[in-house]
Amino acid sequence: MDRSAGAVGACGAADGLVVSHVMLHAWEEPPISGDAGSGAVFFPGCSLGCAYCQNRAISRGVHGRACSEEELAQTFLQLESDGAMNVNLVTPTHFAPQLRRAVSLARSRGLSLPVVWNTSGYETVEAIRANAGIVDAYLTDLKYVDARLAAELSHAPDYPEVAMAALRAMVEQVGSPIFDELGGCERMVGGVIVRHLVLPGQVDASCKVLDALWDGFGNRVRLSIMSQYTPLIAEGDPVLAAFPELARKVSEEEYEAVLDHADALGFEEYHWQQGDPAKESFIPAF
Questions:
Q1: How much is the mean pLDDT over the chain?
Q2: DSSP state of 245
Q3: pLDDT tens string 41-58
């Protein structure tokens, strides 16, 4: 869509830059949040339509306020002043040109924090390549390698091929994970963390995602296996008729089976969640 001419994209965004929420986010992976918190900037809209989205308060519209590139650059600098581990751009894809300019402006004024591109993985290779010199690390999803699941749960049957191509471009651009230390905590300053959210009833699908990651990248990416799926699909939604198990949380047995598969494949280091994160307040109050 030509949003500069007034059109609205599938993401729900028009031409202007909109910000939904800015916070020191404590619930990302440890090398992203540390103790001080990640400097998370949330953007509204999304190019996917996941039935189970936890951030639908902003993903299904443009909830937030208009923000200039100048204001955003100052926000980045304020986050650094507040002690943030990084600048964490959450669902940034559809505002990419504005965000690249805002990061460049902030860096010209002294920003030294690493910039994290926090994405669903549904990115074009061209868009990733355009981030060269702007983005230091990627925090990306790999939701599915099954086109049927991608179509029925996220309205994107091409998600597997698109996300894998984008992931290859990310690894080519920023390489293997690199860490330093800030405030006594390990901090990721380069490389890729790949998140995978385990869905109830979909252990086999999750294991196939891990197979694809292992075959394609081995330990060149840091894996994050998430159990925080929270049932948010409304009763009567046709997705529940096809996937009734999405009305419940992931069981301990299902999650352990996926972790065991990661071990068996040979992943040396990965992040996993303890307890019942679906009970925690992992969803910011937008």
A1: 93
A2: G
A3: 999 999 999 999 988 778
State both tokens at 21: 């929420």
Distance CA 153, CA 184 (A): 40
φ/ψ (deg, to 5) at 8 = -110, 130
Q: Pull the structure tokens for residue 246.
A: 């999405």
For residue 62, name the pLDDT band (cuts at 50, 70, 90). Answer: low
Residue with tokens 């992203």: 32
Q: Tokens for 260, please give them.
A: 């065991």
The whole-model pTM stands at: 0.95
- Please give the DSSP secondary-structure letter assigned to residue 233: P
Q: Which residues contact 88 (CB under 8 A, 6 or more apart)?
A: 25, 28, 32, 38, 39, 40, 41, 116, 118, 139
CA separation for the pair 39, 101 (Å, rounded): 18
Question: What would the pLDDT profile of 142-160 be if each residue is shown by its tens digit?
Answer: 999 999 999 999 999 999 9
Measured in degrees and rounded to the nearest 5, phi and psi for residue 255 equal -65, -45
3-class state of residue 154 by DSSP: helix
The Cα–Cα gap between 61 and 57 comes to: 8
Nearest to 134 by CA among 113, 163, 164: 113
3-class secondary structure, 31: helix
Tell me which residue has tokens 């998430």. Answer: 226
- Cβ contact 253:227 at 8 Å: no
